Amino acid sequence: MNIYYVYAYLRSSNNTPYYIGKGKDKRAFSKQHSVSVPKDISKIVFLETNLTEIGACALERRYIRWYGRKDLNNGILLNRTDGGDGTPGKHGIKRPDFSNYNKTRKHPFQNKSRPDHSSKMTGSGNPNYGKKTSSEKSAKISESLKLYHLKKKLSSIDSTLTAPANHDKC
């Protein structure tokens, strides 16, 4: 399926890219990156859209090679890998395999009853139980929640509105 895209984060100062990525859905707007996502969504540019996963991986690698990586002293990007799905860690270094460790490690509550945190934090067990919130604090919380929901609504707007038109591939 052609659901993938390649995107770039642009610097505010000179509109040069500082990060190239591959994604689908809302990945370009996700804060789960090793670099900061631009606050101004006009600084998130979709370089290629309507791609297969393999095509997106190849183009991501090509763009990263083209602009170069700062950590390798050969470019302007803050990317920590050469790009593409399954890139083995930072610049070709294989990441350690923790799958065996996770299978054999002891869990802190193994063979014990897990404390019921939820029941301890209800009613008088809650440190805020019986405390009143000032009207000033309530107003700040209200404004914060309104801003949060506005940002959430904006991020849910279809990314095709900010994406350039697709070009047919050769």
How would you characterize this protein structure?
There is one protein chain. The protein contains 4 helices and 3 strands. By secondary structure, the protein is of the alpha+beta class. The protein has a domain at 1-86. Strands 2-1-3 form a 3-stranded antiparallel β-sheet, covered by helices on one side. β1 (4-10) and β2 (17-24) form a beta hairpin. The longest helix has 21 residues, at 135-155.
Task: Please supply descriptive tags for the structure shown above.
single chain, 170 residues, alpha+beta, three-stranded antiparallel beta sheet, 14% strand, extended, disordered C terminus
Helical element count? 4
Strand content: 5-15%
Please give the number of β-strands: 3
Low-confidence stretches: 86-91, 163-170
Query: How far apart lie the N and C ends?
Result: 18 Å
Radius of gyration: 22 Å
Element-by-element helix/strand order: EEEHHHH
Question: Which structural category fits the helices and strands?
Answer: alpha+beta
Helix content: 25-40%
Instruction: Give the assembly state of these chains.
Output: single chain
What number is the mean pLDDT?
A: 80
Strand order of the largest sheet: 2-1-3
Largest beta-sheet characterization = 3 strands, antiparallel
Shape: extended
